[in-house]
Specification:
This protein is about 0% helix and about 40% strand.
Length: about 130
C-alpha cells in the first residue's frame, strides 16, 4: 500500500521565544491509502499530537500500527474509536511503540472514515 504522507508541523517561535505560532495545514484522509507520519521520532517526548477530524455521520476507528524498531512494539497495533462529526486529539506518549526503523508511524482508518489529519509537536533540537 502506498501511504499518503504527513509531517509533524512545528511551531515557529516569536521573537521573544514565548509563543509558538503555526498556521496548520490538514491532509484529507484516503482510507485505502492510510497515512504515514514521517520522522515521528524528531519530536520531543510528550509533544506529539495527532489531530483527526471525522466528518462522517457515524463513529469510526483509527489504528496506530505497531512499529518494528523498539522492544515495546510487542504491544502490537492500537485501535481507537473516533466519534462521528468530531475532532479528536491523540497525544502520543510512547511513539517508540509505533515507530518503524526509518522513524515513521503508520496509521490506518476504518472503511467508513472521512475527514482530515495533521500532526503537531516540538522539534527535538528546540
Amino acid at each position: 500500500m502506498a501511504r499518503d504522507e504527513i509531517t509533524i508541523q512545528t511551531p515557529i517561535m516569536d521573537n521573544t521565544e514565548s509563543i509558538g505560532i503555526r498556521t496548520i495545514t490538514a491532509k484529507s484522509v484516503t482510507v485505502a491509502n492510510g497515512i504515514v507520519l514521517k520522522n515521528a521520532m524528531a519530536c520531543m517526548n510528550n509533544t506529539l499530537f495527532i489531530v483527526l477530524s471525522n466528518t462522517a455521520n457515524s463513529d469510526s476507528a483509527i489504528t496506530f500500527k505497531k512499529g518494528e524498531k523498539y522492544p515495546n512494539t510487542m504491544l502490537g497495533d492500537l485501535s481507537l474509536s473516533v466519534s462521528s462529526s468530531s475532532t479528536t486529539v491523540f497525544q502520543v506518549q510512547d511513539p517508540a511503540r509505533f515507530v518503524d526503523a526509518n522513524g515513521d508511524i503508520n496509521i490506518d482508518f476504518a472503511s467508513g472514515f472521512t475527514g482530515t489529519i495533521y500532526a503537531i509537536g516540538k522539534k527535538v533540537e528546540l
